[in-house]
Predict the 3D structure of the following.
Amino acid sequence: MPDRYATEYQIGQDNLRRWGMDVHHPVFWVATLLIAVFILGTLMAPGDANQVFAGARVWSTENFDWLFMIGANIFVLFCLALIILPVGSIRIGGEDAKPDFSTLSWFAMLFAAGMGIGLMFWSVAEPTAYYTNWYGTPLDVEPNTPEGAAGAMGATMFHWGLHPWAIYAVVGLSLAFFSYNKGLPLTIRAGFFPLLKDRSWGFIGHVVDVIAVLATIFGLATSLGFGAEQAASGLEYLFGIENTLGVQVAIIIVITAIALISVVRGLEGGVKVLSNVNMMLAALLLLFVLFLGPTVAILNTIGTTASSYLGDLIPLSSFVSREDTTFYHGWTVFYWAWWISWSPFVGMFIARISKGRTVRQFVVAVLLVPTVVTLIWMSVFGGAALDQVQNNIGELANGISEVSLAMFQMLDNLPIAQITSFVAIVLVLVFFITSSDSGSLVIDSITAGGKVDAPVAQRIFWVTIEGVIAGVLLFGGGADALGALQAASITVGLPFTVVLLVMCWSLYLGLSHERRYVQARRRSGSGASSGDAPEAPST
């Protein structure tokens, strides 16, 4: 049986090698030019840019809310189907492929890159916001009531559970399969090869990869800017250091400098080490809040969160006749657009580290395990926060004043607050360093035509660009510039929703063919897997 997904295309064949760089033509140049144009335009008129892109974001989320909701639901169902279908037994990289990383390090890296920083930012603020009706309540539940508390925790899990991880799993599995089993370049365009064949390497592929680069760089720079604000808020809250633009830019410089060291060391010596540190610090902070906080209330919250999440899963997933429009558009659709815009970055990074796992192992690990961990994390921190609000303890009892302060306000009412708040600041910074590092590796791979061993100079270029974008926009345009960047990232989520839906079909075609191909090779005794034929890129 012939492998109809084989191609004569050679990884890096369209690359230009100049000044110690090895870049894809034209993806690198077009993406770099568009980034420069956006930054210059935003700096010249940050308020106008914010207004324009915010308008585009509102237009896309309000007029295409149905597409975001349908798409997110399809991604979950598609991933669950892969677990039970026969294609789940296919091993990424071929039947003899071995994992490059231990299971624990694998979990740590995919979790840190996927949403570790978001959990630090929103685990306290989001349940509190929903419970107090800061900006709408889920399904119009009555705020400041026991039902409101359960609804707040269930909706928080809804935004951070199965749906976002399904989005990441679709991209990650598609890229991992086509790269390691078919020897295709590790770029977004490779996921469409069953549909486009060699046209994947032409104009359509260029467009897809450029959009992926823009979504990734804008999303990372936005998060870096907002993360600097949270860290600066923590420093002011803890040590009295005034939260100024200068302090925030200094934090960005420090993060970028450490990320430079990490990215030069590569996956094994950089991202893997930082991710393991992340997980250890996060586990210590979680255990501290669990056992020295309102333990009984938190344990009850775990059960409440799980039952509310499962009970409200279908109503929250619906887009028909929603009456909670403020919450629905302002939170859920916003989140789905945000996760989709981040999917090229997180999905490709997960693909980089997942060789040697079966499809079933991959989906279970990327979809179900993080959802369980997130449920525990959100229940511990959100439960502690809601207990303080309900019992009128501390500043959170007055509601959300500033999102970046919510975590520190909660910790302030627990023992050794200065120590735990300092740990939280360190954890925020390390999560951002990990995101910057892994994001640079991803962008470098896309703009190098799928190469994963591009020159170190290119990694340095992209991690520096991320820091420069965040720092320059923050310093030159402040909140308006960052708002424009975030709105631009979310707007990219609209076309990428269609891209991911097509990717699901393409991936299913590829997996189905692979299963038949492997069975035919076994019967003929000619080998174990098509992954043995072409040489796939290594990590």
Observations:
- The radius of gyration is 23 Å.
- Residues 528-539 have pLDDT under 50 and may be disordered.
- The beta strands are 15-18, 21-24.
